[in-house]
Design a protein that fits this description.
The protein is an all-beta fold. It has one helix at residues 225-230; strands spanning 15-23, 26-27, 32-37, 56-59, 65-71, 74-80, 87-92, 101-104, 111-118, 122-123, 128-131, 145-147, 153-157, 163-169, 178-183, 188-192, 196-201, 214-219, 233-236, 242-248, 253-256. Strand 9 and strand 10 (122-123) form a beta hairpin. The chain starts with 14 loop residues before the first strand and ends with a strand.
Length: 257
């Protein structure tokens, strides 16, 4: 294997973050606050043990306050309490300039019912739906989420008032994911199209296949970049340099290797 020598590592001091959780009428005591690094490598987001040293699980006091020390600059903060919509938010601690991060929890809002149809005709069951927040906006991890039944029917609970962007993710291979705008409290009909599959072959300059290359496909087209980010797909090449993708929407895509 490769030997790495003469590497100097500088440890940075950890930062402190105070979180104040509020409900509709004031501070929320005994609310749960979970904090973890926001910049974990994409491939390792399902490996929390690699970042356990900078993750915190806290409970607010009677004033709705919870404080953690030894944190990196960017963290993801999740707050939840019984009877309220759970909220998650990415925070740059230095940008707070020593002020507490205020998270407001709300009660579940209006219900949004609708149906997902394949090609606008066939009811599609097993479809997952969840809200996509704009950059910097808090988003609930439990509210404004739903799955369709065998008749393609879904019911979203706890979505913010007004227009919300919903990511629609059909079962693998059945149809392509899509982002749609729905109005909270109004009936909705969502049409999804058959999915596409593609195989990318990565080769070195001498024509030899490259194994273990990380390949990213990001759909292009209309809509803001933060919506396209939610549709991004990743895969690693195998021994023959092939990375296979399924469930892709129609249209062009950006390719990063």
């Amino acid at each position: 294997g490769t030997v790495i020598e003469d590497v100097d590592l500088a440890l940075l001091p950890g930062l402190s973050l105070t979180v104040r959780v509020e409900g509709p009428v004031g501070p929320l005591g005994v609310a749960r606050v979970d904090i973890r690094p926001a910049d974990a490598p994409r491939a390792n987001r399902n490996l929390p043990a690699a970042f356990a040293g900078t993750s915190r699980e806290l409970v607010t006091d009677d004033d709705g306050i919870a404080t953690a020390d030894g944190l990196p600059e960017r963290v993801q903060v999740r707050a939840f309490a019984d009877g309220f919509v759970e909220v998650s938010q990415t925070v740059d601690i230095l940008s707070l300039a020593g002020e507490p991060l205020v998270i407001r929890l709300t009660s579940p809002g209006a219900r949004t019912r609708g149906r997902v149809l394949l090609g606008g005709v066939l009811p599609l069951g097993g479809v997952d739906l969840h809200r996509v927040a704009r950059p910097g906006q808090p988003v609930s991890v439990t509210a404004c989420r739903a799955s369709t039944d065998e008749d393609g029917i879904f019911e979203l609970i706890g979505c913010p008032e007004g227009t919300v962007t919903i990511m629609v993710i059909p079962p693998a291979g059945r149809a392509a994911p899509v982002a749609v705008d729905l109005v909270t409290g109004e009936e909705a009909e969502v049409s999804v199209e058959p999915a596409l599959a593609v195989t990318i072959v990565v080769k070195a300059p001498d024509g030899a296949p490259v194994a273990g290359a990380f390949v990213t496909l990001e759909p292009r087209g209309a809509g803001p970049a933060w919506t396209r980010e939610a549709l991004r797909a990743d895969a690693a090449t195998g021994d023959e340099g092939r990375a296979h993708f399924e469930g892709l929407p129609r249209g062009s895509a950006g390719l990063v290797v």
